[in-house]
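for the record, two folds in this file. i put them one after another cuz i was lazy. first one right below, seq on top, structure tokens after. the second one comes after a little note so u can tell where it starts
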Amino acid sequence: MVTAIVLIKCDVARIPETAEAIAQIAQVSEVYSVTGEFDLVAMIRVRAHDELGDVIPGHVNKVTGVTHTETHIAFRTYSRHDLE
């Protein structure tokens, strides 16, 4: 399992609608509205790195309201929760 943390800037007038649309993408497990430089953070989980090339530029970046993304790929997971 590959986890990507995607930081998203979007049109501030469309944050709720943009977040809802991103949350509907199958590979997105959660979307958070956050403070700071970015407006949203999306957690994306896929089976292989190649899939990120389809999901992020092919789906997330095309959602109405998204103006910029920055992707961070997780090396390891440290959690008390079962994240597969």
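(here's the note) second protein begins now
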Amino acid sequence: MITFNDLEFKQDIQRGLNAARVMFDNGYGVSVIIGPHTYGGEDGLYELGVLGKDGKLTYDTPVTDDVEGYLTEEGVTEFLKQIQNL
């Protein structure tokens, strides 16, 4: 089971943020970002979006129908678990 601690963040200078992206065996994935213009970034919190099989954001899952912001590391891990269990 992948958790927050397994994510590898890379600096995206063009967008001014740090981003991690991972795809799971079930075809879903996540994009986790933090930066001054992300939901919660100014408070040191993370934003997470669910990725579909095409690698693009999807808004149609049982987990969420939008991006999720203001997440702690533990909150990100909780979403990671739910998405991996789809």
